[in-house]
Amino acid sequence: MDFDDDDAGGGDDPSQSVDGSGEVGEDGDTVIVPPINFAMVSKGIYRSGYPTKKNFSFLKRLGLKTVLYLCPEEYPKENIKFLKQINARLLQFGVAGNKV
């Protein structure tokens, strides 16, 4: 998938943050929202629930190098595009869930 700089968000729409997350506070600053269940496992290693576009500003600040995705479903194109933008790689290992 190619990343096109014109798709990075921002533009002339004041409701969009510069990084394309679409989350701008009342004062015009980008709102930083961690993914659900986000926590540090060890220095430089994090875990969380499924990230969405509103979490991109937060994730960008972490300096991620690799994302390990353990679901069998295809990773969303929007998230792949974000990973390319921050030069992070995606490793996917589809693990069957154990919830009954």
Main attributes?
100 residues; alpha+beta; Protein-Tyrosine Phosphatase, Chain A; two-stranded antiparallel ribbon; two-stranded parallel sheet; 2 helices
Give a written overview of the molecule.
The protein has 100 residues and is an alpha+beta fold. The chain has a single domain, classed as Protein tyrosine phosphatase superfamily (Protein-Tyrosine Phosphatase, Chain A, Alpha-Beta Complex), CATH 3.90.190.10. It is built from two helices and four strands, in the order E-E-H-E-H-E. The protein has helices at residues 56-60, 77-85; strands at residues 39-42, 45-47, 66-69, 89-92. A two-stranded antiparallel ribbon has the order 1-2. Strands 3-4 form a two-stranded parallel sheet. Strand 1 (39-42) and strand 2 form a beta hairpin. The longest helix has 9 residues, at 77-85. It is globular. The relative contact order is 0.17.
Which geometry do the CA atoms define?
globular
Question: What is the helix fraction of residues, given as a range?
Answer: 10-25%
Termini, distance in Å? Answer: 36 Å
Text of the CATH class: Alpha Beta
Derived structural class: alpha+beta
SSE string: EEHEHE
As residue ranges, the low-confidence spans are 1-20
- The CATH architecture designation is Alpha-Beta Complex
Number of domains: 1
Tell me, rounded to a whole number, the average pLDDT: 80
Largest sheet descriptor:
2 strands, antiparallel
Beta-strand fraction estimate: 15-25%
Instruction: Determine Rg (CA atoms, Å).
Output: 15 Å
Number of strands: 4
In DSSP terms (H or I, runs of 4 or more residues), the helix count works out at: 2
